[in-house]
Each structure stands twice: as C-alpha cells, then as structure tokens.
C-alpha cells in the first residue's frame, strides 16, 4: 500500500512553488497525495516567517496534528520546512515534540532522502545547511496542480536587507538561474498545455542571466515571449528601483506580458522608507508610477504596505493614505509591523507604535483600499475584457472564474471545457474583490469552437 503525504503551505508564491516541487519528489519516491491529515503518513508543513502571525500558524497547526491517530494507528511523521525551519532549526524540536524533521529552505530538495533517514534513525533530524551554490530542484519532477498556470523561479534569495525583512536570512544571498534552464522549464509548461507562466524572484527584475551576459530581465521576457503555447507572462515581485525604461518598453511591446504590476512600496513616507532601507523615496515611486501609467495606460497596479513601522507617526501614516489614493491600486497586501528575528529593525529600532494604534491604522488603510478597488471595478462595468479561465466551480460546472490581463478576478457562467481558454466577457456587476459578467455573445461561440 502506497504511503500518503499531505503538504500544507503558508506564505508567498515561492513557498507554493517549493511545495509543488516537494510533491513531485515525494511522488517519485512512491508516495501518493491525500488532502486529509488523518489519512496521511507524512505531513509536511511548509512555513512562512515574514510576519509573526504566519509563524504562529505553525505551532497552532502542530497542536491540531497532536490528536491524530493516522490511518495505521500511528500519528503521521511531521516535517517542518520553509522559512521558520531555516530560521529556528533545532529550536522547532524544542518547542514541539511532534516534529520529526526540520528541513531548511536549501535542503527541501532532499525531502524523501531525509524522511527515510529520520525513519531509519527513529529520532528527530535537523538539516538546515545552506549549500547555496548547489543546483536547484531537478527539472521535470514538479507536481503542478494548476492546469492553466505555472510558476518558474528565476532568482532565489536577496541581497537588499530591507531593515524589516527576514528573507535574506531565510533564503540566502541572491542567485540567478541560468536562462537556458528557465526556458527549458517554460517550454515544459507549454508542452503540458499550460497557458500562463509566472516568473518568480525576491527581486525578479534584478535578473541577469549567468549564462548570457546580454540577457537582463527585459531580455528574459523577450525570450519567454517566443515560447510557443504560452499566452500570458506574469512576474513577481519587481523592486521599484530596478524598473528601468528598457523594462517598461519591453512590457509595452511584448504582447504576452500582462498589464499588471505588483510594485511593493511598503510606506508612503520617505522618512519611513529610509528607515526601512527601501532605497526609493515616495517621490521616486510616484514618478515611476506616472511613467508606467503614461506608457501603459491600461496597467493595473498592486502593492504591499506595512503600517506601524518603528517611529511611524500619524503624519507618516497620512502619507501612506495619500499615496494609496494617488496611485489607485487594484489590490494591496497590508500588514501590521512585527519585529522579525535577526533583522536590523528588530535589533536597533524599538517597536514603539502601540498595537491598538497599528490596528487603527490598518483598519483605516484597508477601508480606503477597499473603496478604491470597488470604484475601479465599478468603472469596468459595461466593458468587454479577455478572461483566461482558470477555475470551474466544484458545485456547479457552469460557474467559471478567471483573470483579466490586469489580474482582476471575473466570475461568469460558461462551459467547463472553456478552462484554459481566453473568453471575452462583458462586465455587468462589480464588487470590491472581483466582478461578474457574461460571455460576449459572438466571441463566446468562437471560444467554444476553439476548444472543440
Ligand atoms: S527587497 Fe527587501 S523586502 Fe524584498 S526580499 Fe529583499 S530584503 Fe526582503
């Protein structure tokens, strides 16, 4: 009887993709996937430590697993991977007796081997070594559940050391993947019928091919544009200071590059941005947004924002609100600041904004952002937009959802075999988190014909 695994993933797209890779490795080692924890022989918790709350989720989840008997009468083996594992190492074992293996971010490619070793040794095992220059995951083994879209990592790690950010400590220094390897993976995605590729990196637009001196990030976009079968290209996350004119021109000229840019800003106050070591000011960011909007008038922007950073005054926070209003983001990930281990802010800057004030600020920011999103979505009512269908409802096959090039979620009725096709949809109704519409009549027939 094949052994079963369950992987639970917290955090960013990088973690989601690592989980896909671990799933592929486990299946090659003979495991089968399950989606219920009491059916699993192995539970992998792929953790995030970017926010304190994300880290707490690990220990809450371990508390739930404690009561499981497992299908063989034994509790499942538990492996903790990802950023908390890298950061805490053996301390995870000290905090929870349930954990059998702690595997750092650079060792998850060894997961099946380490599981077998831990079983043989019958005692907990910790491997958080950082052989940063070893090759990444093998190609061809990733288990991708999404039939329409796929992630491809192009840059790992980060050298920027923003004062609040734990990533350089958990993911290591910046490493670029070879262009040839990236293109092989994109071709593999296209050959499997996937239509959209999302290029990933902590600072994705800092890419410089180690195997082609002439190829920067814009050059890589040009190369991916040429891969037959791929219809849409997205990337996350770019840093504002690496958004060169050459990149903006490539975004304008390459037909497959989506009209969406997730452009983290973190604060609207230059004073706070300096303390965050972001290396861009409010004014530079707004100038960049202006250039992007004038070159790409249909571009939709999203961002990350932190409130309550050490020393953030009410005036600084007002600048965050005014920048949010000035840019008009289509979506935003916003967080209350929490000190993260090893970071400059945690070591040198007192966490001096009271928790109640952080809460008040985030509530105000999120209310503003929600009203902006609703307004932008409302303005799209009556327009016809191209939607790449990526979801069919589990309950009703005729309920579909997908995204526009600008990344707006569109819900509409249709046929389940439209999954993976681009359908023109006329928007009829809008809400803060998405819009609803109907397939545009003549084009809907075209979409049907195209999939027959
Ligand atoms: S650029 Fe800053 S926020 Fe982004 S991963 Fe690097 S250190 Fe973290």
Structure notes:
This protein has 452 residues and is of the alpha/beta class. It has 15 helices and 19 strands. The chain folds into three domains: 4-127, Methylthiotransferase, N-terminal domain (Rossmann fold, 3-Layer(aba) Sandwich), CATH 3.40.50; 149-378, pyruvate-formate lyase- activating enzyme (Alpha-Beta Horseshoe); 384-451, OB fold (Dihydrolipoamide Acetyltransferase, E2P) (Beta Barrel). It has helices at residues 13-28, 52-65, 83-88, 91-95, 111-121, 167-171, 179-191, 217-225, 245-253, 270-275, 282-295, 314-327, 344-348, 355-378, 441-451; strands at 4-9, 32-33, 42-47, 77-82, 101-103, 125-127, 149-153, 155-156, 175-176, 196-200, 232-236, 260-262, 300-307, 331-336, 384-392, 399-403, 409-413, 422-430, 435-439. Bound molecules: iron/sulfur cluster. Residues 158, 160-162, 165, 167-168, 202-203, 239 line the site of iron/sulfur cluster.
């Amino acid at each position: 009887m094949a052994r079963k695994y369950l992987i639970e993933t917290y955090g960013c797209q990088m973690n989601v993709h690592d989980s896909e890779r671990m799933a592929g490795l486990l299946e090659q080692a003979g495991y089968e996937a399950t989606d219920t924890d009491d059916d699993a022989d192995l539970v992998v918790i792929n953790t995030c430590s970017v926010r304190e709350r994300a880290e707490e989720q690990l220990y809450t989840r371990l508390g739930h697993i404690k009561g499981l008997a497992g299908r063989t009468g034994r509790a499942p083996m538990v492996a903790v991977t990802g950023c908390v594992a890298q950061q805490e190492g053996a301390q995870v074992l000290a905090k929870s007796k349930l954990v059998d293996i702690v595997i750092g971010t650079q060792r998850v490619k060894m997961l099946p081997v380490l599981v077998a070793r831990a079983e043989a040794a019958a005692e907990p095992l910790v491997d958080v070594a950082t052989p940063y220059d070893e090759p990444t995951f093998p190609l061809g083994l990733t288990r991708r559940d999404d039939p329409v879209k796929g992630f491809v990592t192009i840059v790992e790690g980060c050298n920027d050391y923003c004062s609040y950010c734990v990533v350089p400590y958990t993911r290591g220094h910046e490493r670029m993947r070879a262009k040839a390897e990236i293109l092989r993976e994109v071709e593999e995605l296209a050959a499997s019928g996937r239509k959209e590729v999302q290029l990933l990196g902590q600072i994705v637009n800092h890419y410089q091919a180690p195997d082609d001196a002439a190829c920067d990030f814009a050059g890589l976009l040009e190369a991916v544009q040429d891969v037959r079968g791929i219809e849409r290209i997205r990337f996350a996350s770019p840093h504002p200071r690496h958004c060169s004119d050459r990149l903006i021109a490539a975004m304008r000229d390459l037909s497959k590059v989506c009209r969406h840019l997730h452009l983290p800003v973190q604060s609207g106050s230059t004073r706070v941005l300096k303390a965050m070591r972001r290396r861009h000011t409010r004014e530079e960011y707004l100038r960049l947004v202006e250039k992007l909007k004038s070159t790409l008038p249909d571009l939709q922007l999203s961002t990350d924002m932190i409130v309550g950073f050490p020393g953030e005054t009410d005036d600084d926070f007002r600048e965050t609100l005014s920048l949010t209003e000035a840019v008009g983001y289509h979506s935003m990930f916003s967080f209350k600041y929490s000190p993260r281990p090893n970071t400059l802010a945690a070591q040198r800057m007192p966490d001096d904004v009271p928790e109640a004030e952080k809460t008040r600020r985030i509530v105000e920011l999120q209310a503003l952002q929600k009203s902006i999103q609703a307004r932008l979505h409302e303005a799209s009512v009556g327009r016809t937009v191209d939607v790449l269908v990526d979801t069919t409802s589990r309950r009703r096959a005729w309920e579909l959802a997908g995204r526009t090039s600008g990344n707006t979620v569109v819900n509409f009725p249709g046929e389940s075999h439209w999954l993976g096709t681009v359908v023109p949809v006329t928007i009829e109704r809008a809400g803060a988190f998405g819009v609803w519409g109907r397939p545009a009549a003549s084009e809907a027939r075209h979409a049907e014909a195209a999939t027959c």
